[in-house]
Amino acid sequence: MTTGVSEFPARLRSMQGEEMFQAEEVAAMMRLHELGWGAKRLSKEFGCARNTVRRYLRAGGAAPFNKPTRKTAFDGLDDWLRERFFRHGGNADVVRQELASEHGIVIGLRSVELRVQRWRRELKAQKRATVRFETPPGHQLQIDFGEARVWIGDERIRVHIFVATLGYSRRMHIRPSLRERQIDWFEGMEGTFLRFGGVPTEVLFDNARALVEHHDAATREVRFNGRLHAFARYWGFKPRACAPYRARTKGKDERGVGYVKHNAIAGRRFPSWGAFVAHLDQWNREIADQRVHGTTGELPIVRFADEAGVLRPLGGRAPFGQLRDLIRKVRPDCAIDLDTNSYSVPWRLVGETVQVVVLAGRVIVRHAGEVVADHPVCEGRRQQVTDRAHLTGLVGAGPIRELSSQPLQTPALLRPLAEYEAVVGGGW
Which of 27, 229, 318, 380 has the smallest set of CB atoms within 10 Å of its CB? Predict the structure, then answer.
């Protein structure tokens, strides 16, 4: 008489009696070993003999093992399940809800829990195995968004909190907003640069959809959003995304987000949005900047003195949002349209396609890599801005009504053409 033993137990055993782990478990074991975990600690963590651990370490990973498989509702979704499991901190019920809403798969919570069980040990180990990574002054800025429910007047609203933390000094910049759009990320970074008076070498962030189009977990290949590329070139920093499932590499800022939520916001009410913003600014200056940091043992504002001098100067740059890069076709009247107004270009370009860059109060028109027109932005509507030189040689050119007879002064914010080229992608 035989007992009812399962044909395929959860943890398989080899013919020698040694435990055979799933590939994901072995991969987690190898990563922890790279972080400095020894065989004794790993054997305790994974509940196996030290020799089993040593065997996997010598082999450099899991050995192939074939076993019968059957189709399930999760087939082809393991990468998606893993990403959502780690994103939601192991909350299988949230994963179940997103399975239904995004993939139309309605399934019980227990089934989801069994499917993601293989990653729980790795998630637990990641939360405990944090490697401290220190950066030199001015090298790195870590940024992130957090959410909080805040009482504004008589209404409790959801607020998105942008927090930026300098890697060396731990000095922070905070910006609340009602949304988490790409423009909110950009304005948060620009506010940080202005607050600190310079730009770091690199900016580290999570794989936010507004910034990262694709990040391969295996190859680490990253494809940033095209507008983020332009923003980074404009301000002169290198964008860097955390490895998927390893957002704790950005731990300084994640702890900063929690610090803001629990110390600056929790338990408080604000009569207006303006009062809320003012409170965060005051708290940042008087509390966050002046506290003795638990890791560095110094005040962030004091430690910042070593960092301020190595940040890249702002150079009088206008906000990135003021830059516009457009394509226009020259009309028969030797002008291009922009915001209901018309701006002249040399008459020989009638019918040609030109590039129009709007920045720092100027309208700069380029053709074939050359600047062919440079006008001040017209503040009115349905106006004609004309340079008489653009009509020189044109037969039948009549009197021209000019917007101003005063010579145009180049503003202080106008920079060399090379900088414009760097922003808009270089010459044609």
Answer: 380
Q: How far apart are CA 315 and CA 320, in angstroms?
A: 13
Burial, 328: exposed, middle or buried (Cβ in 10 Å; 0-12, 13-18, 19+)?
A: middle
301 and 290 Cβ atoms separated by less than 8 Å: yes
Render pLDDT for 174-193 as a digit per residue (tens, 0 to 9). Answer: 999 999 999 899 999 999 99
Percent of the chain clearing pLDDT 70 (strictly above): 79
Dump strand ranges (E) for 256-403. 269-270, 324-329, 335-338, 341-344, 353-359, 362-367, 370-376, 384-385
> CB of 369 within 8 A of CB of 363?
no
177, 84: one domain? no
Same domain, 294 and 350: no
The string of pLDDT tens digits covering residues 58-110 is 887 766 544 555 677 788 888 888 888 888 778 888 888 888 888 888 888 88
Residues for the chain: how many in total? Answer: 428
Report strand pairing: 140-152 vs 155-166: antiparallel
Pick from 82, 81, 19, 10: nearest CA to 46: 19
Read off the pTM. Answer: 0.50
**Has residue 382 been placed in a domain?**
yes
**Among 207, 204, 152, which residue's Cα sits nearest to residue 178?**
152
When divided into structural domains, the chain yields a total of 3
Q: What count of Cα atoms within 13 Å lies in the side-chain half-sphere of residue 333?
A: 12
Classify residue 294: in a domain, yes or no.
yes
Residues 188 and 209 in one domain: yes
- Print the domain residue range for 44: 12-65+74-128
Are the CB atoms for 326 and 156 separated by under 8 Å? no
Neighbours of 307 (CB within 10 A): 22
